[in-house]
Design goal:
1 helix; two-stranded antiparallel sheet; alpha+beta; 86 residues
């Protein structure tokens, strides 16, 4: 069964690659904007806070092999937060 939906690369993007990596061949652009950003410190990535703003520039989880599976494993938490009423 094909699983091409788990990987997409836009090497023509002016920001490609948007993170410093050794292997650009396996750099996955599918989650260009990480859907786990909203999880704050529960995302599991290597982020820091700069002046109160989450800086994910050192995290390559969404762009790595296995990143799709990792993000999908956290989507229940994203959906829960997105479903909460103020």
């Amino acid at each position: 069964m094909s699983q091409n939906y788990k990987f997409m690369q836009n090497s023509k993007c002016e920001f490609f690659p948007c993170h410093k990596v050794k292997d650009t061949e396996s750099f996955n652009c599918l989650f260009c904007y990480c859907p786990l950003y909203m999880l704050k410190d529960k995302c599991g990535g290597g982020f820091i806070y700069n002046y109160g703003i989450k800086d994910c520039s050192n995290c390559i989880i969404p762009h790595s092999p296995g990143g799709y599976e990792y993000i999908m494993s956290k989507m229940e938490s994203v959906i829960k937060i997105g479903s909460e009423k103020d």
